[in-house]
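Lay summary

Proteins are chains of building blocks that fold into shapes. Our project writes down both the chain and a compact code for its shape. Here are two examples, one after the other.
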Amino acid sequence: MDLIRESLLKKSKASKKDQFGRVLTFSALLLIVIVVVSIFWFVASKGLATFFSNKVNLWDFLSGKNWAPGQTDAHGKPLTGALPMITGSFLVTFLAALIATPFAIGTAVFMTEISPKRGAKILGPVTELLVGIPSVVYGFIGLSVIVPTLRFLFGGSGFGILAGAMVLFVMILPTVTSMTVDTLKSVPRHYRESALALGATRWQTIYKVILRSATPGILTAVVFGMARAFGEALAVQMVIGNASLMPKDLTSPASTLTSILTQGIGNTVMGSLENNVLWSLALILLLMSLVFNIIIRAIAKKGAI
């Protein structure tokens, strides 16, 4: 009886494998959580040192227009105004998304509704190729083509918000396009059949039924592309001009959070004011990525409802 009871209570190989799988997946999940929390803690501790250790006023930091951390104004306050970089980042991001959205929607509609076979055969590989191109290549092309073109058309140096937006537009286009294609494919087929049965033309079906049904997914794709654009560094740095000034127009040299970070982080001493304010810029970037993710989740949840 004892042997029978022992054999019944003994775990089988399948249960041991199942338990091992649960432990493995839980460990991976725990590791990801620890990494994310560690990143937030590290960046926050460095970024907040500007306000707690160096006694920089938060409002002056966010609203100031003069950026020269190693210098002070007439009142002895350090020139740590981050508003030019914050403004430049948002302008470049929104302008790139504004340009990319109609192209992405048009390409996705062609690939899913107009000519699915030809679109999947031609545009699909092209979109995947654009994703794999390194950002430095985009920046070099922008420096060699876009900047001289803008200089010829509008005068000036050619560097600025518009040049950065044009480069980012090409960079985020495949992301927005591929996500929009997946969204349009997820629209139930009977939506199309019902609209056509009621006498709607193909374009009426696309515009009034398919695109409206896919609006939450398209908005998610656009916000995801904006998050990608907001954090881009090297390509933007090569064409925006890297001038820490408030943008006067779209064709004057400007800067973004990422361009100032990549330009200055290697030339400062850890723990100094010059280094801490750069970590504060990094903290803004991190918080904005969190905001973009919250927006994406909110849109996806609304679309699911």
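And here is the second example, written the same way.
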Amino acid sequence: MNEYLATGFANVDGCDDSTEFKHCLALLDSLPYFHEYKQRSYGLLTLSTGLSVLEIGCGLGDDAFRMAAKVGPNGVVVGVDTSARMLEEAVGRTPANAHVKFAQADARNLPFKDESFARCRIDRTLQHIEGPQQAIGEMVRVLKPGGLLFAYDNDWGTFSVSSRDEESTKIIETLWEESFTNSWIGRYLKRYFLEAGLQNVTMEPSVSVLTDFELADRVYNLRQTVKRAVEAGYIFPAAADDWLSELQTMSHSGGFLCTLTAYTVVGMKP
């Protein structure tokens, strides 16, 4: 793996190879935890026939396709992403007769008129955007009165990995956490929604729990983060090897644990 997931999603087209990012999105979409919160997001948006929906940071388009099936032939879903590579993939994966459109755009400067959409959804995208409040303001702008905005995002300050070596663990957790543009965005979402003028704002936390080291490494770049910690002089190579070895041993015995808290926030435009 050449690309670092924590930083690379902010500029996929600027990376040498976008394959790892596509694989990561496909992997996450296949995991039970992600399936559950995604399905819940469609319910919280009260999707129904004929609605117009905007999906910010649409990636491979899976959420857009599922929402399109819910709004039916009289509705439409527009997926937006900054990455031309991701959009090309999404277009190529679009099911026949799906009422989905795609556009390349920055969430902070959306190319849509005021009050264009009945619903708007953004999922794990604000963590990568500088100026998240501006992006939220843009989403509110293009929402119709009475429209709903849904956001799901991580609080990387809660990221945890089980290990007896607490010192090395804190270094590795912090290095991964601080690689994100907005590492604490999850805990700020409700406040940002209220500041943007949204009403009836609700928030709920959820916790992702992984108990397999290899899966956690694919999702959170554990080996790569350890390598970065060694290269930066934060951890001695021997300590890094011991840390990884311990986690793999715990994974085989059932004692490995890797967790992260994220927040779901929904608000209505008055």
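What can we say about the second shape? The longest helix spans residues 237-253.
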